[in-house]
């Protein structure tokens, strides 16, 4: 704790005290309040865990992409777009943390309201639009974090396209972000799958994937220790198109893929969504994201790393992702609904320990 700082509650205490209040607030206001508290906690504490913590149990460790993951459960991109609370996520037991999506240029994102809870479906809909302070600001924050010898788990940086950058200049946009951030990351993600930036999903073609990965690999390969690069795809792609993009990414030097981002398909929901647009995450995404993960694993074989995300709320969800071929998994929406104790509850069950 820093000198002169007052007492700061542990994350679990925050949740018990604040959940009833947060769920009465507009979803984005609640998110902002929770993230501000998380950032405050992170300024005062390192987030380091003892060897006896379940999140550091040797049986849970995974070696992938040349990195050591103390456990296979990570925080998905989107929750901490500007890397404001990385020590907190480590403290919650995550085996790795992915920040972003960050863009080369700072941008406010889409007009509000743009984040919605669907409690009856255990889901969220967001049309945030990559609201973030930009790659330069993140570089400053990550530099300070590294000066504190943090985090003690692998840190991923998720890269997206700036909204004002035309599609024909997307490669240079991703390249600029990579040049600023690659050395501060443990792995990089090329995100072409958010539905909330106009035209972004149009980059999910074999031709564009090749161009974008090549662009990112330019500054990355000039590092003394180049970082693993992953491609993140949408669940709404046809299986054959997703497999073609995946094969192209691997051929272009990617270490693997993240499957999947949010979906624009709202069918089968209990909640009325008339007039609502954006990406759906949470429980309804579990089946399709896991299905596509399995298809891609079957097509690529055992070599490439696959990270499964979408719909993880319970130990059996982790087990299903791992059984479908995921080396690692990520969650976001489950944390919102189940609270900060979710990671350790998942890790305490045998499903997270399947190797």
Helix segment tally: 11
Largest sheet descriptor: 8 strands, parallel, barrel
Class computed from helices, strands and strand pairing: alpha/beta
Indicate the mean pLDDT.
Answer: 91
Q: Proportion of β residues? A: 15-25%
Strand order across the largest sheet: 3-4-7-8-9-10-12-13
Taking the alpha carbons of the first and last residues, their distance comes to 37 Å
What does this structure look like?
The chain is α/β, with parallel strands linked by helices and 355 residues long. Helices cover 36% and strands 16% of the residues. It has 11 helices and 13 strands. It has an 8-stranded parallel beta barrel with strand order 3-4-7-8-9-10-12-13, surrounded by 5 helices. A 3-stranded antiparallel beta sheet has the order 5-6-11, with no helix packed on it. Helix 5 (170-181) runs parallel beside helix 6 and helix 7 (239-251) crosses helix 8. The protein is globular, with a radius of gyration of 19 Å. The protein starts with 10 loop residues before the first helix and ends in an 8-residue tail after the last helix.
List the helices and strands and how they pair.
Blueprint: H1 11-22, H2 27-44, E1 62-64, E2 67-69, E3 73-75, H3 86-91, E4 96-102, E5 115-118, E6 123-126, H4 135-147, E7 155-159, H5 170-181, E8 187-191, H6 206-221, E9 229-233, H7 239-251, E10 256-259, E11 279-282, H8 286-300, E12 305-309, H9 315-324, E13 328-331, H10 333-338, H11 342-347
Parallel strand pairs: 3-4, 3-13, 4-7, 7-8, 8-9, 9-10, 10-12, 12-13
Antiparallel strand pairs: 1-2, 5-6, 6-11
């Amino acid at each position: 704790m820093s000198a002169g700082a007052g007492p700061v509650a542990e994350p679990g205490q925050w949740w018990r005290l604040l959940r009833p209040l947060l769920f009465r607030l507009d979803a984005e206001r609640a998110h902002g309040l929770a993230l501000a508290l998380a950032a405050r906690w992170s300024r005062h504490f390192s987030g380091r865990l003892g060897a006896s913590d379940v999140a550091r149990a040797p049986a849970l460790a995974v070696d992938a992409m040349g990195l050591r993951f103390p456990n296979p459960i990570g925080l998905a991109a989107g929750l901490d777009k500007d890397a404001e609370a990385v020590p907190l996520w480590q403290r919650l037991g995550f085996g790795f943390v992915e920040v972003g999506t960050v863009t080369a240029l700072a941008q406010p994102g889409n007009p509000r309201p743009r984040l919605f809870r669907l409690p009856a479906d255990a889901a969220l809909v967001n049309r945030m639009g990559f609201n973030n302070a930009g790659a330069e600001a993140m570089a400053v924050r990550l530099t300070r974090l590294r000066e504190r010898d943090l985090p003690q788990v692998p840190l991923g940086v998720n890269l997206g396209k700036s909204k004002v950058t035309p599609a024909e200049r997307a490669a240079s946009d991703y390249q600029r972000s990579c040049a600023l951030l690659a050395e501060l990351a443990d792995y990089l993600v090329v995100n072409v799958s958010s539905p909330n930036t106009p035209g972004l999903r149009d980059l999910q073609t074999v031709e564009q994937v090749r161009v974008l990965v090549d662009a990112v690999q330019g500054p990355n390969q000039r590092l003394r220790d180049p970082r693993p690069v992953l491609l993140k795809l949408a669940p709404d792609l046809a299986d054959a198109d997703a497999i073609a993009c995946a094969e192209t990414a691997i051929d272009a030097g990617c270490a693997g893929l993240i499957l999947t981002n949010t979906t624009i398909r709202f069918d089968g929901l209990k909640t009325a969504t008339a007039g609502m647009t954006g990406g759906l995450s949470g429980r309804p995404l579990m089946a399709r994201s896991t299905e596509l993960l399995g298809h891609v694993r079957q097509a690529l074989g055992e070599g490439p790393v696959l990270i499964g995300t979408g719909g993880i709320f319970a130990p059996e969800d982790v087990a299903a992702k791992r059984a479908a071929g995921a080396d690692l998994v990520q969650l976001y929406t489950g944390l919102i609904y189940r609270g900060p104790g979710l990671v350790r509850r998942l890790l305490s069950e045998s499903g997270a320990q399947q190797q």
